[in-house]
Amino acid sequence: MKRISLILAALAVFAVNAGAQSKNFTLGKWVEVQNAILKELNRSYVDSLEVGRIERASVDAMLEALDPYTVYVPEEEQEDFQMMLNSTYGGVGAIIYKPDVNGNVLINEPYAGSPAARAGLRCGDEIEAIDGTSTHGLNSSECSERMRGKPGTTVVLRVKKLRAGATWKAGEVLDVPVVRERIALPSLEYAGMLNENDGYIYLSKFTDGCGQDIRNAYNKLKASGMKRLVLDLRGNGGGILGEAVNIVSLFVPKGSVVVTSKGRNAQEVYKTVTDPVDTEIPLVVLVDSGSASASEIVSGALQDYDRATILGTRTYGKGLVQSIRPLPYDGQLKVTTAKYYTPSGRCVQAIDYSHRNEDGSVGHIPDSLTHSFTTAHGRTVRDGGGITPDFEVKAHRYSRLTYSVVYSGILEQYALEYVKKHESIPALEDFHFTDYEDFIAFAADKNFDYRSSARALFDEMKKSLAEDGLTDALSGELNALQKSLEMDKETFLRLKKDEIIPFIEEEIVVRYYFQEAGIQVRLRYDEQLHEALKQPAISW
Fold first, then answer.
1. Which domains does the chain show, CATH number per domain?
2. Which residues are marked as active site?
3. Can you tell me the distance from the alpha carbon of 540 to that of 537, in angstroms, rounded to the nearest whole number?
4. From CA 383, how far away is CA 367, in angstroms rounded?
5. What is the pLDDT of residue 171?
6. Torsion angle, CA of 19/23/29/34, rounded to 10 degrees?
7. pLDDT in tens, 359-369
8. Distance CA 196, CA 225 (A)
9. Range 321-350 burial, b when 16+ CB lie within 10 A, else e
10. Dihedral of CA 240/242/245/249: which sign?
């Protein structure tokens, strides 16, 4: 018997070694094949060979076959990569707008407290040159790239001032030196009281230090009389896992499991390591299809502990952890190394992340393909596709016209024209946009797709009918239907007045009172938030 055991053990070792050798052989084989193909192409391909472009395409295609989150980042893309990871960059801290490649650059939105704002740059100021190079002929990206740079260096902007200041006249051209800084876009974009009882925090991403920022914001709101906290994670695509742990730590006992990551060779359990600020205050967490990764860790953990009421729509379904690995020539590989699991044991990763709805949300998943888990108080929750809210509260569905007006840049252009005509506006709480006919007159001269959803579908149907050779046979019916669907631009804009005005107000106020003001205007019209506030405090 002992001899048989030894033979079986030897066979097992042989199988492991054989498997490893097989993998190593396969890897070596394909590296050799790829090198041979590239050498042969370089030697005999009919046209000149762009080796860099071909190799980059092959790397991207290889990684794309794995999952959407494993990517190669070469040295020249490091700045943009850091911007994506940490929301930081070296620059002056202003959003610019270039309406015409042959014209000047306009200051669109300087960030509050930024080097640009401290240098006196305001919305509507025109930048004629950057470090002596004219902005005429440069596109917006080229101008932005010239304004960015290493923190501590100086960029000189030749600026035509829109309005008079303490030391300059309206229309005067000045050379304005601005010292670049490391610009950190805030992840905690707004915190304030919605009413005498409800505090509100909007977190747009999980960046370094955001857990401490939320702790500080909580303390201020509590001092203002907060009795319930709304944590808004809608549209928050995630970020640093450790910061998700820090945020959960604020509301559950020390030592609680927040998330477990399981990779090929390792498992790591993340627990709360600090004392909470409050384990009893009612919590509402708002989520939607754009809430992903770290947002799902926070909402999932608080749901599993029955510590918060999750409201909104089902989250994105990204239960994968990425790590950064160094590569030759100062490149980096962002590679998926683990899946994460909430305290109840569920993984929120979508069963099939390659097929999603148009808005990015997870499609319908039959219960037969998922597994059930139990929260601290015995409620059933399921895995396989994001966090399902305790109460579904759908967001407002905007018309196709409203989306077209927003994404075509017309609102942005109108806001800049508005700033030129209005030196100031009332205080934020008193400002309401009332000159909608002026906006209609402005928009009527712009080119944008103002078709209704029904008209857009009708046009697609006509194309299909033409391909099938049925247009002539149905011409009478088609002409009658087209006539009933036609609506001129001005009429349609008037019809959607109540939808568009909130966007106009938001665009205008940020140019006088910075970005926080825009969020406050957005909250005025936030139907999903208002519906959430109607929900009573729930103790599971």
1. 24-65 (no CATH), 88-184 (2.30.42.10), 188-395 (3.90.226.10), 400-452+487-531 (no CATH)
2. 293, 304, 318
3. 10
4. 9
5. 95
6. 170
7. 556 666 666 67
8. 7
9. bbeeeeeeeebbbbbbbbebbbbbebbbbb
10. negative
